[in-house]
Amino acid sequence: MARPYALLDVFTDKALAGNPLAVVLDAKGLSDTQMQQIAGEFNLSETVFVLPPENPAHNASVRIFTPSMELPFAGHPTVGTAVLLAENRFGAPDNDMDALVLLEEKVGLVRCAVAMQKGKATSAEFDVPRLPKPAQQLGEKDAIAAALSLEPNEITFENHKPKSWEAGLPFAFVPVANMEALNRIEPVPKYWEEAFGDIEHNNTFAYCRQTIHVNSAFHARMVYLENGLPREDAATGSAVAAFAGSIAEFDEPLDGIHTYCVEQGFKMGRPSFISLEIEIQSGKIHAHRIGGQAVILANGELLV
Q1: InterPro entries attached here (predicted)?
Q2: Residue 219 in contact with residue 181, Cβ under 8 Å?
């Protein structure tokens, strides 16, 4: 059976940048094992499988796999899938067009606002279905520094401290003194669990205030271990969704709507830009949204 698929680059407005994504359309009939094997075959950070929605008022049910595990939620698969479904339905519009795409993910229903603009890469923004909350306990600063090949005095800036948050997936958030230190990060597997916890998803999002682009608020790298080997992600929307917790706790933004741009992937040669909008009420996060652009790189058929 031939199943159409697309390759996209997400959180970028140009091909061969951002975070690559595979989306398998018409995944009906594939088993869990087959989906995991196909994700391993693509060998991208995530592969999405599109299925008929449980609620006919929604656009699709989606399942998201890394090469080694299924995820309940992820940012760049959500943005990329919303852009792909909208473009497949409407094509290239003669005039600017907005669309609403409703995706059933394991974390819950995700509402995506898609903006299609003539001559520009399509963008999507989604309401994060869960507010950030503290996740696993992290190790001492010395252990965190050792796990990242840094010195302990490089693990901080201003009043920011390492802390784990989750908004669908847990991440360890590590403030780093500057971009020079951030670029020196090399994961050391033997210290990883001591620093970031003995859990399946102990991926680490290191960040600093220093940025390459003037409109960015933070520069970041997301590093992790897969099958015991160090890996890096070019753009991690689910991490930025949880990162809102650190921003709210340490920066204490005033009530109102605050917008941030997080740049990521530069060390990998895959520049990415993730937008984060946080709505603060009574000093706490009331709602937050993740957004970015995506471009379709290729279309093909999967013969499985």
Answers
A1: Phenazine_PhzF-like
A2: no
Query: 56 with 153, same domain?
Result: no
Three-state SS at 94:
coil
Q: Alpha-carbon distance 226 to 242, whole Å?
A: 21
> What 8-state DSSP symbol labels residue 160?
B
Domain co-membership, 169 together with 253:
yes
The pLDDT, as a whole number, for residue 282 is 97
- Strand 163-166, strand 123-127: pairing: unpaired
How does pLDDT run across 45-88, given as a tens digit for each residue?
999 999 999 999 999 999 999 999 999 999 999 999 999 999 99
pTM confidence score: 0.96
The β-bridge partners of 186 are: none
Active site residue 46: yes
Catalytic residue among 46, 87, 154, 232: 46
Rounded-to-10 torsion of CA 72, 280, 158, 162: -20
pLDDT at 238 over 80: yes
Please tell me the distance from the alpha carbon of residue 139 to that of residue 268, in angstroms, as a whole number.
Answer: 27
Q: Are residues 77 and 121 located together in one domain of the fold?
A: yes
Q: Cα torsion for 147, 150, 151, 154, to the nearest 10°? A: -110
Q: Which residues, other chains included, contact 281 with Cβ-Cβ below 8 Å and sequence gap of 6+? A: 255
76 and 63 in one domain?
Answer: yes
Q: Looking at the structure, tell me whether residues 162 and 83 fall in a common domain.
A: no
Q: What is the pLDDT of residues 251-275, one digit of tens each?
A: 999 999 999 999 999 999 999 999 9
List the CATH number of the domain containing 173: 3.10.310.10
Range of the domain at 268: 133-291
Answer whether 12's CB lies under 8 Å from 18's CB: yes
What is the distance between the alpha carbons of residues 303 and 194, in angstroms, rounded to a whole number?
43
Q: Which of 52, 256, 250 is nearest to 165 (CA)?
A: 250
